[in-house]
Specification:
By secondary structure, this protein is an alpha+beta fold. It has 7 helices and 4 strands; from the N terminus they run βαβααββαααα. The protein has a 4-stranded mixed beta sheet, with helices on one face.
Length: 212
């Protein structure tokens, strides 16, 4: 039976603030090693060069390293999904998913919240916006289902995935390996990546030499 899951939301007071996560661990609500994933909203505009996401990512991983026993490689495998930009009434915050401490909750027969996490295989620039990307993400979702103890896809009610984008460096990398990319426009690639597969037209796919 999967372990019970707790979900906590903490404020982010500055771009490098991870005090909310540290406080939850120090108060004994869960252990650092039991953090499964974090979904957060950071300051900034959310564009390609919005480095608030990287700063938040580093700050939260430092807490997991300092207060836990996982190796740096294991901590790097914890999904931290950051969305940049808090215009309007949105405040910077993070939602933390973690296993509850052992014995805190009695087992129940009724369905309850469970969470599975997984890292997909590497999505190269030539895959973005194409069926091969869909297949890699789908395989990752199936891995997450197994981690969560879910066997019926009908029991999956929410999937959070972080989509990659294309930049000059990645575009050049694909070309050096004799592949093309869906688009060389960075901001357009964000939309294409988030919308795959609807944007992957058969015509463009046949014209492409990207892996299938």
């Amino acid at each position: 039976m999967p372990r019970p899951i707790e979900v906590h939301k903490v404020a982010i007071e500055s771009v490098t603030d991870s005090g909310g996560l540290a406080d939850l661990i120090d108060e004994g609500l869960f252990a650092a090693d039991d953090v499964l994933a974090v979904i957060g909203k950071t300051e900034g505009k959310g564009g390609v060069n919005d480095y608030a996401r990287q700063l938040a990512d580093h700050a939260f991983r430092e807490v997991l390293l300092d207060r836990g026993s996982r190796t740096p490689e294991k901590v790097r495998q914890v999904p931290l999904v950051w969305s940049g930009g808090t215009d309007g009434v949105i405040s910077p915050h993070a939602t933390v998913f973690a296993y509850a401490l052992q014995g805190r909750y009695a087992p129940l027969d009724e369905p309850r919240l469970t969470v599975g996490v997984a890292m997909s295989k590497m999505i190269g620039p030539e895959y973005i916006g194409r069926p091969a990307m869909v297949e890699k993400v789908a395989a990752g979702v199936r891995d997450a289902m197994r981690t969560a103890g879910i066997t019926d896809p009908a029991d999956v009610h929410y999937v959070q995935a972080k989509a990659p984008l294309l930049v000059l460096e990645s575009n050049n990398d694909a070309k050096e390996r004799d592949f093309d990319v869906w688009t060389e426009e960075t901001r357009t690639s964000m939309d294409v990546s988030n919308s795959t597969p609807p944007w992957a037209s058969p015509w463009r796919w046949e014209r492409s030499n990207a892996p299938r």
